[in-house]
Amino acid sequence: MNMVKRMGLLLILAGIACLFAGPNVLAAPSWLFRGKITNADTGEPIADVEMTLEHTEIGSSYTMKTKKDGTFIRRLPLGQYHVILKKDGFMPQDDYVRHPLEGDALEKDYQMKPGEGILMTELSEEERQRLIEEREQIKKEIEEQKKKAGDLKKMFADGLAAKEAGDYDTAIEKMTNALAIDAEQPNILGHLGDAHYQKGNYDKAIEYFQKAIALNPEDANFHTNLGNAYVKKGDTAQAKVEFEKAIQLDPANADVNYFNMGAVLYNAGDAAGAVEPFQKCIQANPKNATAHYLLAMCLVNTGDFKGAIQHMETYLELEPKGQYAEQIKQILPALKQQVGS
Fold first, then answer.
1. Which of 151, 204, 160 minimizes the C-alpha distance to 181?
2. Tens digits of residue pLDDT in 89-104
3. Considering only the top CATH level, what class is 30-120?
4. What's this model's pTM, rounded to 2 decimal places?
């Protein structure tokens, strides 16, 4: 009887224990979000970045900060999160992440640029709309600039091809149209000036060469071409100024401008003044046969027959059948006789 009583008591105690224990509780499913935040300019880790993770479906929010090495790690309930990153001295940024479909961890790194700013999500509706409109306007302007640049490039290419083919009227038309899109293109101005020069429009050529130089004064070719246009206009003094500028800007190709300067002075009747430019031209380019010939003519005019003979003979060595070869052959005997006497 006592044993039956004891067994009944045990059963009652076991029942009470079951009532207090209740059903088993299962842990909520979760995932691990981790990564590293670095300086976009230096690649250095950024510590103490404030990270806010807002669950977009249930509204819960979680916060954390990056460690000294820039890393972060957080276990989160399943779902999509709006990630907001903030740190003084850096542009804030945001992102959207969701738990991975496979595995229980997502690793994602971020880079923050130094500076100050505000997130779109922090703006008022009016401010957001204004910013969107400004961005659309900027985008539209960029597209228009791209189209203009494409049109300008094609017009210039067509004009250049026409100029090289000797169709100067078409070249002038195309390049003038290109300048209507962008008037501050020194290369186009220079080629337009050259097209006018080839047509004999020397005033127009001078105008466009001057405009090209105003935009790019360091281009020696513009000064050389302007000097040539002044020569055609008979302004030898201004031509000399431009050739001297070209020599200063491009010493490696100084022979061309020394030759031009010498030719200007020689044609102006200043044979003595032309001697030095022709000598410097030959010094820079000893194989310039025409420079040897013109220097010889200058020396004849100044009475230096010995020097003239030397340069005439050099011309014949360089171009035995050249343009001035027969003339030199006729002059040489008399000069040698003069020197011999």
1. 151
2. 999 999 999 999 888 9
3. mainly beta
4. 0.58
